[in-house]
Automatic annotation (TrEMBL):
Native source species: Jaculus jaculus
Pfam family name, one: CBFD_NFYB_HMF
CDD domains in the cross-refs: HFD_Dr1 (cd22905)
Protein name: Protein Dr1
Gene Ontology MF annotations: protein heterodimerization activity; RNA polymerase II general transcription initiation factor activity; TBP-class protein binding
GO cellular component: ATAC complex; negative cofactor 2 complex
Disordered as annotated region, ranges: 139-167
Amino acid sequence: MASSSGNNDDLTIPRATLPNVQVAKDARELVVNCCMEFIHLISSKANEICNKSEKKTISPEHVLQGNQDLGCGSYVSEVKEVLQECKTVALKRRKTSSLLENLGIPEEELLRRQQELFAKARQQQAELAQQGWLQMQQAAQQAQQAAASASASNQAGSSQDKDDDHI
């Protein structure tokens, strides 16, 4: 078995592979170790094939041939499907990342526009905060006026009570 120099605590079995199944910790570790060993074998075989063909980079064809050579030819069709899915996802990423490049707007101009938008957003936020502050101040003034009014009414009422007592 291949020795691993890293920490395997973060390696787990994806829940989607075994729904509604509990797996013992030692069984989980065994499956993870088997997966790592399988990947190591396929990678080593693909590297051998790559070196024999005097290439410096392992290609998907090397991995497919490695599967065949190791007796895992029955997996080749599934591996090809996964390869096609990966190519599709990579193509979508490239299209998305090149969207900005295809706009024809220099990066400096995009950055300037972004800074303008940020400044505008900060200004709007400051205005909202100022409005909130003014509303709080108005509410406080109204509360003070109401309290003063109530106090004046109470004082007027109590002095009238004193006048009534003298009569």
